[in-house]
Amino acid sequence: MGTFMFDDGPISLRHELRALMEEKLPPEWLGPFTADPEDKAMSDAFCRELAARGLLVPEWPAEFGGSDMTLDRGLVIREEMWSHSEPRGGQYYGPNWIGPAIMEFGTDEQRALHLSPIARGAVVWCQGFSEPDAGSDLAAMRTRAEPDGDGFRITGQKVWTSWAGWAEWCFLLAKVPTESDDARAGVTVFLIPMNRKGIEVRPIDGLPGPHHLNEVFFDGVRAERSEVLGRVAGGWDVVRAALSHERVGIARYARSDRMLSRVASHVAVDRPSTLRSDWMRARILNRVSRLVCRRTLAAQAESGSLEFEANAARLITVRADQFAADVTSDALGAAFFEDRSTAGAPFGGAVEFFWRYSQGATIASGTTEMLQLRLVSELKKGRRLSAAEEVADVGEAVTNLIGGVDRLPALRRAVDDPSSRQALRDAMTEMISGLDPRDGLDSAEQAAEVARRCGMAAAPLPIEAMLLARDGVPVAWAGPGGVLEHADLYDRWLLVGEEPLHAIYRAAPLGTRTGAFVVPEPDELTHAPAPGPADAPLALALQSGYILGALETSLDLATRYACERVQFGAPIITRQAVGFRLADVVAELYGIQSLLHYTLWRIDRAPHKALSDALALRWYAVDLARRSLRVAHQALGAIGLTYEHDHAMITAALQPRLRLPFSVGHTLDRVVDAVRVVGFASLFPPDGEPHAG
Ligand SMILES: Cc1cc2nc3c(=O)[nH]c(=O)nc-3n(C[C@H](O)[C@H](O)[C@H](O)COP(=O)(O)OP(=O)(O)OC[C@H]3O[C@@H](n4cnc5c(N)ncnc54)[C@H](O)[C@@H]3O)c2cc1C
């Protein structure tokens, strides 16, 4: 897996953009969405400036006016723009997805006509999709394109059309007559100038502020055949391809990152409080949001449109955005009401502005429910998370060694006969010999895959500790008092933690079934060699890999059951109360997987600074585990509670890893403490926080 998407670079480009914004835009400028035409003029001038520097459509091919820049540079530009209130204003549709759609589906004439003005920063486009009776159900649109000589006459109404009052062009959907019963048949994309006779725009006032919402009426508007993008009646495919780019094209997380950083002085980080916890959670969720967006864009750049990933990423992103807006608003207290019109408002009123705009995040460009519906349909088709090809071999070998996942054979054997773990331990030790996660990122990725595969089968082994073993002595992060899972499997343990204990504990007897292999008390303490700086964060990261694997199996069991179980005449997955929760879980699993890769990369690059990263990963994993196991149990009904069913076995077997070395709440407290010592890598680190390296 490529790692550029973890990086903040190229840093010099970030600096160039920040300097440019400082020079060209007023301090605390919140963009052009005001009633003042000066703001729009400023945005237009800024777009032209970006274009002149080759920064408006950086990733476009040079032949279309772009700079042939790599995706990483394009991402830096999107992040810097969005975090500074998107000074491109209404122009970002063009560079982000309308231009690429014209490149992909347009004729040579259309490319010649449209791409250059977008690349020069000289045109605003609007998107005419939604209608009064066609919102989520876009195919129900009524706007008609009746054949008229060589062309068409378009009649109908669009609504919520952002920037329609500014736009020179509209990316418009209308239906041509067709014999087909399919509601999507006939949908056609038209590229229509907004000054054409028969078009009327009426603004709608609301929470997002001026220019965001409009009605647009089309009264017998003439459209030429040459203004159809793609095939006549082939518009649905164009829209699908275009929107999968739009879904992850907006760097919402960048603004959240900056806002969370700016309100840091309003959050009492030195004492426990709900606000402090929320603020830290928002930062972690925002990190996940950034990772899934960047990862999806990188994957799409290689493989074309990836709906599953794009939908999962967007679900995570818009929710994180709204949470960040709530937390930053809470942090300000009554100062929240000092908006951009109040002289001396904190950050020029940016927090209130952010909060208002974020209210539409889960609605605009398709609601979260539509994302969930699409994720459910992928789950029904058997779609699951996939691992990187580079680790597939080691993963297969581990699954074979533990006897597969179905019926959790290794776990069931160990519950009946705890001593069977010793043979399994020996076989696994042999298999992983030579694999040291401290040997670089590739080795760490392989080790994480070993842990994940063990988790998928709830293998009864302290696999993380085994992977980290030094001279045959397993390395673990023990709970308070040295409580360890599977402590009886080894005579000696090397324990790590925030402050390494430099101690070896001796094993004691077994505990109960929900922690079948937890050993309550160490009975001997001796000195041991000091662990390295990567040991503690790796212990947590590999443990999260195990948890990820177990949650994947949990989701798979619940999904398969929900597809097969018929109640009230239909499979229960077709009920949104069941399906949507499963969709949320699969999206968040994509989140943990991305955060795990990132954390391994951080540990490899800056092990001394990576404890906050590893703790954040653990918090995300255990917090999700608590919720997702419950979702799966609920979907499974009573059968999932029986030990005959694999789900009850997984739930019980996972408890030690969810509670040791510390539970979810304690984990979050530790993240906050660790951040005070080593920082937390962010695009906009808060003032006074240690530099995360
Ligand atoms: C700030 C903003 C800017 C926008 N800009 C544009 C634009 O430029 N161009 C444009 O064309 N549109 C734009 N939109 C419109 C946007 O695409 C629609 O709002 C969105 O598609 C939802 O449609 P709707 O508002 O009619 O809600 P509805 O479709 O009426 O849905 C209402 C609620 O019901 C839920 N729902 C509907 N059907 C189902 C179902 N089958 N199962 C479960 N739940 C369901 C929805 O998820 C939602 O929660 C914008 C919207 C906003 C908020």
What features would you describe in this structure?
- One of its GO terms (molecular function) is flavin adenine dinucleotide binding.
- The two termini are 22 Å apart.
- The chain folds into four domains: 4-122, Butyryl-Coa Dehydrogenase, subunit A, domain 1 (Orthogonal Bundle), CATH 1.10.540; 126-238, Butyryl-CoA Dehydrogenase, subunit A, domain 2, CATH 2.40.110.10; 251-366, Butyryl-CoA Dehydrogenase, subunit A, domain 3, CATH 1.20.140.10; 535-678, Butyryl-CoA Dehydrogenase, subunit A, domain 3 (Up-down Bundle), CATH 1.20.140.
- Strands 1-4-5-8 form a four-stranded mixed beta sheet. A four-stranded antiparallel beta sheet has the order 2-3-7-6, with no helix packed on it.
- It has 693 residues and is α+β, with helices and mostly antiparallel strands.
- The radius of gyration is 27 Å and the shape is globular.
- The relative contact order is 0.08.
- It has helices at 11-24, 37-52, 71-83, 93-105, 108-120, 235-249, 252-262, 274-303, 307-332, 350-358, 368-380, 392-401, 409-416, 420-432, 441-456, 463-467, 535-564, 576-605, 611-636, 646-659, 664-678, and strands at residues 125-128, 144-148, 151-159, 169-175, 187-193, 199-204, 213-223, 228-229, 475-477, 484-485, 494-496, 503-505, 518-519, 525-527, 566-567, 570-571.
- The longest helix has 30 residues, at 274-303.
- It binds flavin-adenine dinucleotide.
- Residues 126-130, 135-136, 160-162, 208, 212, 360, 363-367, 369-370, 576 line the site of flavin-adenine dinucleotide.
- The site of flavin-adenine dinucleotide (FAD) has 21 residues, from strand 1 and helix 11.
